Amino acid sequence: MEPREKPSGRTATFDALRRTVDGALFEPGEPGYGELATPWNLAVQTSPAAVLEAATPADVVRAVRFAAANGLPVAVQATGHGIASDLDGALLIHTRRLDGCTVSAEGWARTGAGVTWKTVLAACAEHGLAGLCGSAPGVSVAGYTSGGGIGPMARTFGAASDRVRAFDVVTGDGRLRQVTAETEPDLFWGLRGGKSSLGIITATEFDLLPLPVIYAGALFFGAESVAAATLAWSDWCPTLPPGATTSLALMQLPPMPGVPEVLAGKFTAAVRYVYVGNPDDGARWLAPMRAVGAPLIDAVRAMPYSMIGLVHSDPEDALPATEASCLLADFSPAAAQTLLEAVGPGTNSPQLLVEIRQFGGALSEEPQIASALCHRGAAFGLYSVGVAAPPELPAIAGHAAGMNASMGRWHFGASLPNFSASGGTAGFADSYTPEVFERLTRLPRHYDPDALFRLGQVPAR
Ligand SMILES: Cc1cc2nc3c(=O)[nH]c(=O)nc-3n(C[C@H](O)[C@H](O)[C@H](O)COP(=O)(O)OP(=O)(O)OC[C@H]3O[C@@H](n4cnc5c(N)ncnc54)[C@H](O)[C@@H]3O)c2cc1C
């Protein structure tokens, strides 16, 4: 769905900003506006008053000050993978031109706000280093990390936000601040898990891990083995060491470029797996899942870390989608059976994908320097995606809500910020304990006195 373009073109309101920035400013109706204001989820309609394609951090400062002077809310977009609301009337700051990426052989990286994990993976490869990216390397480091960042090695190394050394961030008072645990402890706490509620990150500096190779990939099972694989997976997860991270996806992939023929148009299950350590040990831990039956595809092997995106093989192209998620305290065989009855083969489930990620391990440990990321004690995350023409999406969302409700016995009772964009303000509130939510709500009174960052995934003020 296209952004709701207003046929106005340039207006006098934005002239002052247009004259001062190094980047480009687009208003509805101007060429460039549609491309920049279109999120990855094509079902989310956006209608910002203008989009600034910032060329420098100073542009972000200028834009925030301009917005404050003109009473406009401010929003930020890098790749559009997690846009949370329609951004109505906002000044949207697009960060894709803040694309500097420095990787040090000494084990750290510094990335501009528009840099995606794909770029970091490529830059790290020659040094045998790894950044803690998510399942889809196409998301931005800043957006992912500010929401905690829980990826395919989360049980081994915890959340990406725990590896951050420093942020550069423009706060709502129009100041560009260097934020570390020492210089700005409150912001350093809140920017690791609090999303864009406290400011616009212009750069992120974070630790890398020496990790050239992982034993990783996915086993794909056909419809006849989906139930057995799901039940076996629920039995297998509690036996795994923290060196192993896994998720299970029930999938109904359409025939489309990138989908192997053997999976296309069929109900399949994928067991995703990353083991950090000796590949032979990785294979031994995986053996119970290989024993479920002959997989359609066995793509688990030793691979360069830079290929970690293959573990989930998330779609890269923009799609009209509806997502739902919840956290689970357990995924016992009874829970697995209930899930199969709700969305397994033969249920006519309209979901493209239903995914259960195992958490625990390092993810359940609090970091040395406290952060706003909550609910580290959840044992599993349940996440679903439906893809269809926008008029069909509400029915699919209703079905997902029914699936989540059917899993009520095992609910952990909360969400994670990176998986609750579609839940809006309520979903975001659910991502925090009352104490953390109260602090995240209180801090902007100091850093964002005009409540510029009041749209999208931020606490209601
Ligand atoms: C296919 C897919 C797979 C995913 N896999 C994972 C996963 O494995 N683990 C995980 O944790 N998450 C995952 N996510 C969620 C993803 O990390 C979030 O949606 C994230 O916010 C995307 O950031 P972005 O900047 O690329 O997207 P955008 O839509 O551009 O931004 C989304 C939000 O991120 C924040 N943000 C972005 N840039 C900045 C900035 N410069 N300063 C401050 N805030 C900013 C804002 O709140 C913004 O609204 C996945 C999402 C998708 C669509």
Structure commentary:
The structure is a single chain. By secondary structure, this protein is α+β, with helices and mostly antiparallel strands. It folds into three domains: 83 residues, Uridine Diphospho-n-acetylenolpyruvylglucosamine Reductase, domain 2 (2-Layer Sandwich); 110 residues, Uridine Diphospho-n-acetylenolpyruvylglucosamine Reductase, domain 3; 203 residues, Vanillyl-alcohol Oxidase, Chain A, domain 3 (3-Layer(aba) Sandwich). It is 26% helix and 22% strand. It contains 14 helices and 19 strands. Strand 5 and strand 6 form a beta hairpin. Helix 8 runs antiparallel to helix 10. The relative contact order is 0.14. The mean pLDDT is 93. The site of flavin-adenine dinucleotide (FAD) has 36 residues, from strand 3, helix 5 and strand 10.
Associated small molecules: flavin-adenine dinucleotide
Quaternary form: single chain
> Between the first and last Cα atoms, what is the distance in angstroms?
30 Å
Number of domain units: 3
Please report the number of helical segments. 14
Helix content: 25-40%
Can you tell me the CATH topology of the largest domain?
Vanillyl-alcohol Oxidase, Chain A, domain 3
Key descriptive features of the protein:
461 residues, alpha+beta, Uridine Diphospho-n-acetylenolpyruvylglucosamine Reductase, domain 2, Uridine Diphospho-n-acetylenolpyruvylglucosamine Reductase, domain 3, Vanillyl-alcohol Oxidase, Chain A, domain 3, 3 domains, 8-stranded antiparallel beta sheet, 5-stranded antiparallel beta sheet, binds flavin-adenine dinucleotide
